[in-house]
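QA checklist item 7 of 12: single-chain prediction sanity check.
[x] sequence parsed
[x] length recorded as 172
[x] structure emitted
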Amino acid sequence: MSDHPENYEDVTVFGLDDDIEEQLLLGHNECTFIWSNKEGWPVGVIMSYVWRDGHFWLTASSQRARISAVRRDPRVCIVVTSTGTALPRNMTVTWKGTCEVLDDQATKDWFYPALAEAILGSGPRADAFRDFLDSPRRVILKVAPTQRIGYDGTKMGKATSEWMKSRAQASE
């Protein structure tokens, strides 16, 4: 491939296509959720999520440090990889976003069943998990994505293979 770069200084040409990203976000239920603590340090944990209506939806108990942190500074980041999905393992999307903390009953009524289904499917275990989520201090995090970084390693692998093949042929 003649337009392949001589190195990997710029991998933006290997972006994740929108349709593949949507498959990734709908086909997965786990992300890395990142926020800033009081000292400004980035902190992250693995959390389950639901992707719906162009937002990430997550939950935690309100006494968790991340809840007071996002109330103080709603700028967060979410990272989702294709590991654990039917997609190739080397795809990822990172979203910067703003986080809103919700505790209204209408949101809980649709979100708890949706999260339980995303994690456990349907049935008695999912029903029990849904009920377990409905605790007094639990809140829901709604992340509105604002800036995206997508990467498709399959594109990079293919381009690299073609570039190496053309280099080998040129040196013959």
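[x] summary fact logged: The radius of gyration is 20 Å.
[ ] second reviewer sign-off
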